[in-house]
Design brief:
This protein is an alpha+beta fold. 14% of the residues lie in helices and 35% in strands. The protein has 6 helices and 21 strands. It has helices at residues 38-41, 54-57, 154-167, 275-294, 311-314, 368-375; strands spanning 31-34, 48-50, 65-74, 82-88, 91-96, 103-107, 111-121, 125-136, 139-147, 176-177, 182-183, 186-187, 195-204, 211-218, 221-226, 233-237, 241-249, 252-259, 267-271, 349-352, 357-360. The protein has a 9-stranded antiparallel sheet, covered by helices on one side. Strands 2-6-5-4-3-9-8-7 form an 8-stranded antiparallel sheet, with helices on one face. A two-stranded antiparallel sheet has the order 11-12. The longest helix is centred in the C-terminal third of the chain and has 20 residues, at 275-294. It is elongated, with a radius of gyration of 26 Å. The N and C termini lie far apart (58 Å).
Length: 376
């Protein structure tokens, strides 16, 4: 029985469900709660954005400023321009000190690799720099940050350590199947996690006969595990819950949890008896989810010895210049950050008859006409 996969429930919607949501007595759904879409509103750790507004530079609920580094150059896109790098538990933000509206936000979930390499900085010359390779919406961007302060390792140590803390705390944010969640029949608590309820005798309805197990409701997530096999389990963070319903099933009234599309679009069913206990559990989950939505716990823990100033004090509100600039050809801020992963140095210049200029030799397979079409 415990060998059944949770994925058997995936895609069961409405009255079409094979097991979980099979048609029951007339009346169908008795209760439906569409959760506050915390995940839908969360972009900070899952996106790469350029020239964001002052409002988007502010920390969102649950986001915390970890470190602030002055005198940081964005060597890839704004070489020679001194700026400030803000490190939060969800992303890094760089903005120009001279023109704060020139900025970028890089979410940790987009980062593929972080390394240190030598770069050519207009402010420092040949120096050690932080290289960050990212992927967002199937596009790769590369960022190079250089500390203008000689001999300061903080740029490297802070960003690398905070990103590692983000990577090792995904259990707070991602739905997890068959994880190392249970030890001696007890939930292995995460830092900042508290168990609010433990319900015995809860059936998971992902197979024809169901699996008997135990339910844990905490301030961060919902966890179920089979009593006969602790490794048959699921951890569902509130961040990934799309809706909670009480529905009729062939087993009677069941608690139905639908996860976000990002987490796989699972539909998980649980049988809790008696009905009063089922209703209490739903009420408790809704209440805890509401508290979580107000101030999410993302689980990224890293503390500096010296506390930085609040982010609001460090970002400068963008003031509308009293100057009218004639519009030129539109430019995209992100073009400068496209990652050419195989390029180690500039290619030799060649004369272009089309342009009447010397240009960098194009990569094989590229044409000037093709590049113009991309820009347009």
């Amino acid at each position: 029985g415990c060998s059944s996969s949770f994925r058997e429930c995936r895609g069961c919607r409405g009255d079409e469900g094979r097991v979980l949501l099979s048609s029951g007595p007339s009346g169908g759904t008795t209760s439906t709660t569409t959760m506050v879409p915390v995940l839908d509103a969360l972009w900070e750790d899952r996106d790469v954005r350029f020239d964001i507004s002052f409002q988007q530079m502010k920390v969102r609920s649950g986001e915390a400023l970890i470190d602030c580094l002055d005198s940081i150059e964005d060597t890839k896109g704004n070489n020679g321009d001194k700026g400030r790098l803000l490190v939060t538990n969800l992303r890094i933000i760089w903005h120009s000190l001279a023109i704060p509206r020139v900025n970028l936000s890089v979410g940790y979930n987009c980062i593929i690799n972080i390394t240190t390499r030598t770069a050519n900085s207009k402010l420092r010359g040949q120096t050690e720099a932080l290289y960050i390779l990212t992927k967002c919406n199937n596009t790769r961007f590369e960022f190079i940050f250089t500390s203008v302060v000689p001999g300061s390792p903080r740029l490297f140590t802070t960003v690398i350590a905070v990103h590692r803390a983000y990577e090792t705390s995904k259990i707070y944010r991602d739905l997890k199947l068959r994880g190392a969640l249970i030890q001696n029949k007890q939930l292995r608590l995460l830092p900042q996690e508290q168990v609010y309820d433990k319900i015995n005798g809860v059936w998971n309805l992902s197979s024809d006969q169901g699996n008997l197990g135990t339910f844990f409701i905490t301030n961060v997530r919902i966890v179920w595990h089979a009593n006969m096999n602790d490794s048959f389990n699921v951890s569902i963070p509130y961040l990934q819950i799309r809706s909670i319903k009480i529905r009729d099933s062939k087993f009677g009234l069941a608690l139905v949890i639908e996860s976000s599309q990002q987490s796989g679009g699972y539909v998980l069913g649980f049988k809790i008896d008696p009905v009063e206990k089922l209703q209490e559990a739903v009420k408790e989950i809704n209440s805890l989810h509401k508290v979580y939505s107000t101030c999410p716990i993302f689980g990224v823990q890293y503390e500096m010895e010296e506390k930085p100033q609040p982010l609001e004090d460090l970002t400068v509100e963008q003031v509308q210049d009293d100057v009218e600039i004639e519009p030129e050809e539109p430019t995209d801020a992100f073009v400068a950050y496209f990652a050419d992963t195989n390029k180690q140095h500039d290619r030799e210049p060649v004369y272009s008859e089309e342009l009447g200029l010397a240009v960098e030799k194009l990569k094989d397979g590229f044409t000037l006409q093709g590049l113009w079409e991309v820009m347009s």
